[in-house]
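Researcher: Next entry in the queue.
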Amino acid sequence: PVLHVEAGDRVVVETRDAFGGAIRSEADLPSAVLTMPFVNPQNGPIMVAGAEKGDVLAVHIESMAPRADHGICAMIPEFGALTGTSLTATLNEPLPEVVRIVPLDGEQVRWSERVTLPYRPHIGTLSCSPELDSVNTLTPDAHGGNMDLPDMGPGSITYLPVRSPQARLFIGDAHACQGDGEVCGTAVEHASLTTIRVDVVKAWPIAWPRLETGDLIMAIGSARPLEDAARIAYRELVLWMEADYGFDRWDAYMLLSQCGIVRLGNFVDPKYTVGAAISKRYLA
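Model: Structure for this entry, 284 residues:
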């Protein structure tokens, strides 16, 4: 373990970029400096006293700031939504390798002379250890992992099911900005200074990660094919509304058909991630 903390403690984390600092210029091709899928270096494990199987670890992301004056976006061979991969096999040649160094600060991401994007950081990979499995940091699942949900930024709370003693929290893969789906395979990956606060919710038996902001609640599912990730997310949201907000199950199911929100985290990783959400105004 790198750190032992108590419930309620605040932790300041110096995350590395998703490439572990291996890409330093636009001449550094991913095929030469990376070994897939061994990317997304994590800070952890952080041991949280009192967390045990059957509990939930609530991770409050309080703030994020860049630790460098740039981020990196890259097209990696056989990785991304619009190319053949090891899991979606084709006879086509891989897309070209392209690396872009993107200047940024705490306000803006300067993509090009034509396009400037707002700095809207989030954590791409956040998890507690599975009970028995060893899962690489590129793969999301019921433990959390590489979900790549843009909602997982400052002001959010991520609820992670605890399956091993003291939770064993891992965090990393900060993004300066990202569109839904992370279509080319990478966001603007950057090293960050991220402040979190951790709490333990005792005896809350959730099966998959959940997320809350000031405006909505969201259940998260990861699977292939993509529609199964959406099914997991919506099922978990229906069960959440029934258990904690007093909805009849079938009323919740039908209501979500009218006002449910779907967020596509990624459809590039070994498993795809979908968040299903509802505005808090309908939960009062």
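Model: The chain has one domain: 3-207.
Researcher: Noted, moving on.
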